[in-house]
Write a structure and sequence with these properties.
This protein is of the alpha+beta class and 64 residues long. The protein contains 2 helices and 4 strands. It has one domain: Alpha-Beta Plaits. It has a two-stranded antiparallel sheet. Strands 2-3 form a two-stranded antiparallel ribbon. The chain binds iron/sulfur cluster. The site of iron/sulfur cluster has 15 residues, from helix 1.
Length: 64
């Protein structure tokens, strides 16, 4: 799995952090940061969920 975040698109809504707190965090301006790759399948599912709930489509998840 490869995770790309577009910090220009991110509006700091924090939905990704709620969905996958091990993988996503927000900087001092509320902009998304990727902390680490998801460790297991539940964590990967959480990342997919984060990609779906992000209101600005700032998260791109590529499988494989
Ligand atoms: S959910 Fe989307 S807009 Fe909100 S902090 Fe995460 S990447 Fe940014």
């Amino acid at each position: 799995m490869r995770i790309d975040v577009d910090t220009e698109r991110c509006v700091g809504a924090g939905q990704c952090v709620l969905s996958a707190p091990e993988v996503f965090d927000q900087d001092d301006h509320g902009i998304v940061m990727v902390l680490e790759d998801p460790a297991d399948e539940p964590a990967r599912d959480a990342v997919r969920q984060a990609g779906m709930v992000c209101p600005s489509q700032a998260i791109t998840v590529k499988e494989g």
